[in-house]
Amino acid sequence: MGVTSTLHPAAERLPERAAVVDLEAIRHNVRLLRTVAAPSRVMAVVKADAYGHGAVPVARAALEAGASWLGVAHIGEALALRAAGIEAPTLAWLHTAESNFSAAVGAGVDLGCSGWELGQIVQAAREQERPARVHLKIDTGLGRNGVTPDRWESVLDEATDYQDQGLLRVVGVFSHLAVADEPDRPETDVQLDVFRDAVALAEDAGCDLEVRHIANSPAIFSRPDSHFDLVRAGISVYGLSPFPEQSARDLGLRPAMTLRTLVSQCKRVPAGQGVSYGLTYRTPGESALGLIPLGYADGVPRTSDGGPVRIADRTYRVVGRVAMDQMVVDLGPEADLEAVAGSEAVLFGTGEDGGPTADDWARAAGTINYEIVTRISPRVPRIHVDSAEHRASAPADAAATTAGGAA
Ligand SMILES: *Cc1c(COP(=O)(O)O)cnc(C)c1O
User: Fold this and answer.
1) What pLDDT does 8 receive?
2) How far is the CA of 234 from the centre of ligand 1 (A)?
């Protein structure tokens, strides 16, 4: 059956199940973030495979749009960017005693440091015969990694000692905010005060800082006084809102990922038809069911209740349990099965034309939009399209690239 997608000309050749990522949406979001953060610069946070969007193509698009830095959690994630030929300044901030600091220093990856890593970082610098570039992290209140304020001066002593020996350079001081998505809470003010003090102490101790950074996506929009030299933007790069009460559209962001498949089967059923494991749903009357071939192995939360699926310009609700590979929508008694069978089924996307969004799925699953996009599993191929090339009438053939495992 001929399926025409509303997504993109290249969509005619999409795999039957795909997370389609529009790189022009990524660029649009980065340009917007640069405007909001100016004169501060923007770090695009591409950890966790760019929140499920594909780290390498997203990093390239973000840099094209003027991001100055890339940020990741793990050194391995930074090394994967380097292996793809991406040389932009890159920071990795979450380590263990077994992290490969030597490879990071060798690849010119900046290291976030909470104090305990200093010995291993200078050991790596000796091995690589090159000074490590370090961003010292102060725990201003989040209680995760970072140096607690009472130990800050002793860590500064140790770090500047190594700096004097030429083994490292403290090029940054940073921290992370706990409640910036709730702008009315007072703790952000406390965190910013602690941060300013920590920066001043570092400068007094002889650190020649290139960047001071604490703002995440919510703080970029709600706390201009948190921008300092650099802001670290994650969820907003992907076009999703960091606030429960404000939509992407309210902020001018464009959701980059569309999760879509095709309706696998449609059939009429009698009243009382049970649906999926546990038979937790029964049709209230004669109806029709549509089978959607995405399930929790693809990253759709099993705990979600009534998630939306857009088929042929109508939004239906998932009924019964989400299974490993599939789930079911109740199409209702009036459904035009001819129109629905084999049609494209969109779980979430740009939200244009009233279509469902990652926020809708977050509500259905009792989680946040961050988790919805990030947990889409490798079984779903990521397809990168570029609506800018499309508009410029470049051949669509060149636009679709597959990253991540094809199923
Ligand atoms: C993930 C992360 C970010 C990005 O946060 P968003 O809310 O997605 O913008 C910034 N900084 C650190 C340290 C992070 O771990």
Assistant:
1) 47
2) 5
